[in-house]
Amino acid sequence: xxxxxxxxxxxxxxxxxxxxxxDHCGAFxxxxxxxxxxxxxxxxxxxxxxxxxxxxxxxxLCGADPLGQKPxxxxxxxxxxxxxxxxxxxxxxxxxxRSGPWYYKGAKLCLVWPTWxxxxxxxxxxxxxxxxxxxxxxxxxxxxxxxxxxxEGWQGWIDHHKKRFDEMREDPSVNxxxxxxxxxxxxxxxxxxxVIEGLGLKWNDEAVKDFVSPELWRGKHGQSNSK
Length: 227
Fold this sequence. Notes:
The protein is α/β, with parallel strands linked by helices. It has one domain: 3-Layer(aba) Sandwich (Rossmann fold). The protein is built from 9 helices and 4 strands, in the order βαααβαβααβααα. The longest helix has 20 residues, at 151-170. The protein is globular, with a radius of gyration of 16 Å.
């Protein structure tokens, strides 16, 4: 199998939108990719089998919340996860993978990134970013984000994620790029198009622009905010 595209970032940052664009440009995400719901009308683009059978159980094994909210895993408490690579690849092949680029999107991956990096050292990481106050605004208005009631709690949660991003960025063995979905929500597709082409995918202008829905992207100060 080719090197995976691993898409991660704080929940409510646009990871699903980013994964959807990668999907629409030809990467394989599996048959059990989660569709839309009230909190994410265009789809979550997360492989349900990998999430439920590998990611969530591993979070609990490490003493963390399987939803990635509270408590969060500490890197010095991460436990070995044998055969992660073979298990993920078996799931993808069973779901129909034959060849070409493939991806797994999971906001929780960044919280345990050394485990995934060890299993897939050649992975291409896409870290999705959004302004802190917009993430907080979205978390406090999303039903399944229940860990904190006040912005200060969510800010600490975001800061924990940002530490993980810094570690990944500073590790020369991690092939990582950051994207800011606010840019393409506002009509600037240059950044994400460069990422798509760098992944060896073909940019599908019509499908991407039809998929991205600015009216569904709400920030603290309105429809969208720049980086």
